[in-house]
Amino acid sequence: MTNILDVRIQGDSMWPTFRDGQILQFVEVHSEMGFESGDVVLAHHPLKKDVLLVKRIHRIEPDGRLFLTGDQPDPTSSEDSHNFGPVSRENIVARWTG
Amino acid sequence: MKTPIVAEAHCDAPCGVYDPASARIAAEAVQSMTKKMLAMTCPDTSDGVAMAAYMNTMARYAAVKEEEAQKCKDELLVLWTDFFKPQHLESNPDLHDTFWHAAKLCSACKVEVSAGHAQELMDACEAIHEMFWSAKGREVPWIRAS
Description:
The structure holds two protein chains of two kinds. Chain A is mainly beta. Chain A has one helix and six strands.
């Protein structure tokens, strides 16, 4: 069964794709689900256990971990894998349905 | 509809505290020093004690003007490059020109003793104040300390 999650974006790190306050639908991931570069995902912050992030998979590392980035072109605008490094697939909660 | 999950899409700092008031205060100091310098009357140049006092006071005003103009420029550059993001250009298409002009005025106020440029710097700080608080979605009145 596909579980759809409503997610409200807080911040501008995914601008211009998403704007602050926008509500989007994500589909909850399951263990067999694969990922591709370019997918937008909802993920647990690897260093802050209570924080969920929305980022794009920029690339998949050779070890299978995911390098997540914001879409915002400003280099100071996104806390992502540039700061906390690639994340494991277990951090991913859902994928954007768009 | 269920309450949506909140997903953070924030910056790396994250989201530092910014306020154009710092630049405005420095610009006010520049304007104040400029006015003081222009209001000074040069004493009889043969009066050594009076000349020493005059030059000492003028040098101190000039030093403060120089320092505060640089402080103003530093504060403006932080707002320009760190606070403002590409999306803010949508509602402020002249954002880059405004900051560039303001930074140039800081330099002009160092080089010159110009009441006109000091006032233009204050006007530029006011324009930036409006842009900043508009971007934050708040109405904050422009005020001066002096």
